[in-house]
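Work Package 3 (structural annotation) set out to generate three-dimensional models for the target panel prioritized at the project kickoff. During this period the team completed the workflow that converts sequence records into discrete structure tokens, so that structures can be stored uniformly alongside our sequence database. As a representative example, we reproduce one entry of 58 residues exactly as it appears in the project archive.
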Amino acid sequence: MLAIVASQLGSPVHEAEDRDPGIVTLFALVVRGLRREARTAFARRCALVQEGGFNPAA
């Protein structure tokens, strides 16, 4: 599963040698995925506001 998830990384993760590289890679992958999804959701919300289809006051 880590191989499938790691294939979604845009660039390799630099890891310290004194830590377990699998855990560091997995943590970096999760953080990147969350940040990417947050940016995508924000862009979708901005597009809806520009189109007039999103009204947060309603």
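The radius of gyration is 17 Å.
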